[in-house]
Structure prediction request, 399 residues.
Amino acid sequence: MSQMQVLTVGFAPSCAPVVDMSLFSSAHQYGVFPGFCDVHVHFREPGFSYKETIATGSAAAAAGGYTAVCTMPNLKPVPDSLDHLRLQLEEIRRQATVHVYPYAAITVGQQGETLADMDAMAPYAIAFSDDGRGVQSEERMRHAMLTAKSLGRMIVAHCEDNSLLHGGYIHQGDYAAAHGHRGICSESEWGPIARDLRLAEETGCAYHVCHISCKESVALIREAKRRGVDVTCETAPHYLVMDDSNLQEDGRFKMNPPLRSPADREALVEGLLDGTIDMIATDHAPHSAEEKGRGLQNSAFGVVGLETAFAVMYTHLVRPGVLTMEQLIQLLAIHPRQRFGIPLGNDYTLWDLDALYTVDPTTFRSKGRATPFAGDTLYGRCLRTVCDGKIVHEHLDPN
Prediction:
């Protein structure tokens, strides 16, 4: 076995942190990276703290190497006014151990009708999103984009055409046909993306597309970027390494958008490689065991991902040579911060790249346990995460 190697990636020249490696095995390779940044998480507080809290979500983030996250607004109350947003900001102030940047809603109650009080919330929100629900009205989205542009904020869109869902809950593909499930067609995602790209081009609004999952979405965004539209997008680890051939009759494989076809997965990887897809986000979406224990059809949409994202990407894409480590760190840490204006500060994360282990959701810091990667064998364990110069996660048994 080789002697200790320390891989430092993603820092400006001469800015990498100095880490005392004397406690760690001399026979392993380690990685020191900038703190990861996830622009799409659900911490469920206020309103649904039985699923997750700011404290447990922060702990999960730190355990996965993240020092900055952006929290989605499907809360109770929805942050559609400054008073409602302040409730979340107070919980962040009290509980967060990593940097937490909340989204504000685009529409009141995320109902897609009246615009939220975007002017009042803009100084306190990272961007505007109705994540979990697509804005169905073209005129409403145009108005939202014009307002966001005037406020210097981005529209971050969950793209879903409700008229095309027809009660579906997994991809409209081979598995659905073989097992008698109702499927969700890809057009329900790419159709609204096509509309929004046209509106972003018309209005000049900065626009970001959440969790793309299908090949048509990649092609549309690639072409829009070629035309100069101010658009970025994200996808999630499960869409990059899984497809509907991996489905099982278990709620831990149910997320929105769903796992799609092998051709879609291949197009997403291609989108990473050619720069069409700008960043990897987890869409960390914890639910209770009861909500995820109703099978593929009846379980709630959503899986957790903060504590497995790096290891999944490193195991399935970096180690086989699909991505370089430099590319992965750009996708996890650098590009999200650049697009969303999130500073790095004195944040870094230390990984044992040779650690091999089986994913055991009972050990998660998150309250959520539903992951499609349960039982998988992965490389890469987070040994330490430092945020603002403070250790916020440490794995005390690096061997």
